[in-house]
Amino acid sequence: MKLIVTTGRKSRESDLKLAIDSAQKLSINFHPRLDDSFEKIFRDSNVDGILVVNRNSMRLQTPHDEFFFHPSLAHVRIKNLREGRGDRMIDAMKLKSGMSVLDCTLGLGADSIVASFVSQTQVVGIESSPAIALIVEHGFQNFSDESPAIIESMRRIKVINMNHKQYLETLEKKSVDVIYFDPMFRHPITKSQSIGTFRSFANPDPLDLETIELAKSIARCRIIMKENSRSLEFARLGFQILSGGKYSSVAYGAIEL
Ligand SMILES: C[S@@+](CC[C@H](N)C(=O)[O-])C[C@H]1O[C@@H](n2cnc3c(N)ncnc32)[C@H](O)[C@@H]1O
Predict the structure, then answer these.
(1) 99/193 same-domain check
(2) Which of 74, 103, 180, 189 could serve as 110's disulfide partner, Cβ 3.0–4.6 Å?
(3) Which one is predicted more confidently, 72 or 117?
(4) 41 is in which domain, residue-wise?
(5) Please, what sign has the CA dihedral across residues 247, 248, 249, 250?
(6) Are residues 207 and 247 in the same domain?
(7) Is residue 58 classed as helix, strand or coil in its secondary structure?
(8) 161 and 37 in one domain?
(9) What is the pLDDT of residues 107-163, one digit of tens each?
């Protein structure tokens, strides 16, 4: 996907600097916004998306939609946990305070925030898409929220822009408690346009067995994968499907070590 970076129309000095830094990080062009409309930028630059930096926030604009970082999904789940209603991912991970988590598929970061809230220690999130990693890392470090617990949980997450297989190869044996995979589903459940926009920037590759073998040597407790509940990926990769979420289209699988 071809991208370009710009700012809002009335950009501050700090936005300009962030936009130029982001263009450098992503090795893409910076487009001084002036009074240009997005339509004009799309027309003139022949790009698929525009990364817009405005008031210290980032969003990825496509011709039809946009996506940006927001911790709203994590909010609902953390509220449930606080009120004792639990969370399927946390149950699958058997996650307790002090346990370490490696999230191999960071995406928009909701799962990492919830894991960080429960573990109360640093979660490492790996994301291979440079644009997604940049937007989410910026969101984790800058998004303000009325809940101090959410802010602390976000700030603790370390984002690494890398392919998870390459990253796993750098880790020592038995050095992480839980390794988590939530790859793009082989058969997407929703056709919603905003998910579609995110999907067009995300890495669609299936997990491979070599990656799972690596993860087995690095995890101390378990590996968890989330997939479509009817997915054949669980069997192919050796995950035991966990019970729960009887009426849900999503399932969690575990490899206990
Ligand atoms: C379904 S999303 C994850 C959603 C995430 N769990 C959340 O809470 O928002 C999958 C993400 O994993 C990333 N991804 C897929 N394969 C990857 C790989 N080999 N290495 C790193 N990231 C990968 C995709 O780019 C995408 O952003």
Answers:
(1) yes
(2) 74
(3) 117
(4) 3-63
(5) negative
(6) yes
(7) strand
(8) no
(9) 999 999 999 999 999 999 999 999 999 999 999 999 987 889 999 999 999 999 999
